Amino acid sequence: MNLPLKTLVVLLLLKTQAGPAQSTNVTAWPDSPAAQPGQGLAQHDFFYAGEAKTERMCIVRAGKIVWDYTHPGKGEISDAVLEPNGNILFAHQFGVTEIDSANKVVWNLDAPTNTEIHTAQPIGTNSVWFLRNGDPAKFIQLNKTSGAVEREFVLPVKNPKSIHGHFRHARMTPTGTLLVAHMDLGKVAEYDLNGKELWSLDVPGIWSATLLANGNILVVSNQKFVREVNRAGEKIWEWTPADAPGYKFSNLQLATRLPNGNTIINNWFNQWSAKLDTNNLPVQAIEVTPDRKIVWALRAWTPPAALGPATTIQLLNNGRAEFRRKPVLHADDKPAFAEAPAGFDAPRDGIAHGDLAMVEYDSKTVGTKRRMQVYLPPGYSPGKKYPVLYLLHGIGGDETEWQRFATPNVILDNLLAGGKLTPMIVVMPNGRAQKNDRAEGDIFRAAPAFAKFERDLLDEVIPTIEARYSVLANRENRALAGLSMGGGQSLNFGLTHLETFAWVGAFSPAPNTRPPAELVPDADAPKNKLKLLWLSCGNQDGLLTISQGVHAYLKEKNVPHVWSVDGHAHDASEWRNNLYLFAQRIFR
To answer: What are 317-328's pLDDT values in tens digits?
Structure first.
């Protein structure tokens, strides 16, 4: 039957208007592929938190949730950090709270009426800084003990009354400046700590901004792009959802650049505006290579690993793999001195030898008896006064690690026999200040005990040595040095206690190292008080970026120091070589 054209048009319109009664057989595009690249929860160890209706945080290790906590609040967790001492500081819209590893609240600050706090970070051991959305919006640095405001300045915003849209993310840089993502102004800006704007760049839809090790800025926009820019505003690298076909991205908030050059990108799901489809789950994060290939995707919405929406993913020290990541070398990453000669660490006959002893002491800091190994130089005599080097081990070691890995007694005996060393006492304590101080189980969970060792060292170890042995008990005759975690401790304790130590050495310091601006807030202090600051790392060590950051800051502030990058990795050859070089240059 032939119908007139007019009749066909009418029938077509009627069919179209029939709407839901008609079956279209259209399948929705999946939010993510069924199979995901990488090892799921086991890809990284990480601390996790997100903006969600339930204020929950988790720690994931070896593919399992090993800790979780739900804050009984009414806001949203926009920023959170697992601190070196094991505490967690988090901003949750209506305040900032700090809890310890037992989930006990150890500090809290409520946001005043008509203000919000969405980003906060610790600074030093007893202060915190945060941005307070409000009229006016402010940067505030606060002493947690006294409550005193240590620093404060007003930040510009587009609409002072629309407080919820002011800020979600800011970070302190290693040089002590503040990098702020201005959401309502659509720009990233850098300020000094007097509030003076030093640099800015328009970034529409910006949510976060992070300084990279190469000096560039990594910005994330809710207009669905992650972009690395230089100070001139030039685009160096960019990722968009078009680079990940098969995945649906609803909201981008944070991105993290890894030491190996990969980037982790969070995909936040908004529980307030959408309902999660358990049959079609999106990923919470992806890890992409510099050429934008996805090598890991995180999708964990259901028990036993129901993580919830993703805002913060803080990678933890994931074993030796991090140490093996290939570092990026800079022009001045070179050895400061020639390598130790062959045989420098081999026992020699026909020379005088020092003595090793295991010493016990009562520790009020820990509440138990503890041990340290002590080297006395050849011919030690109570009738003579000696300087003391306190030598700290790594995260997997104890008071015997230096002796097992590097035989300091052999190295020092040989140097003394050659007339290259000032006779000294060397103390090798256990830097893990907890009752069970053995390197057992998940050694990274003991990181808070390494921070606690600061008091054990100052209040128990040093007084015990100075009471038991004939020593020169003044700062000019005390040195502090260490490897890896102990290298970080040496910087953390030595540079903040210049009244106690005049010689500080860090050999391949680990991620426990505090930001340089916290280590040296006043550049004149180490210039006037330190006799030697030694910073070294191997060019095959994935942790080199930590030392590079400290060196760059010291160089900028004109703080004299030895900067030495040799050809070793994160291993005993690096530590033996640096002990040989460092020991010759102290107490002279």
So the answer is: 544 445 555 678
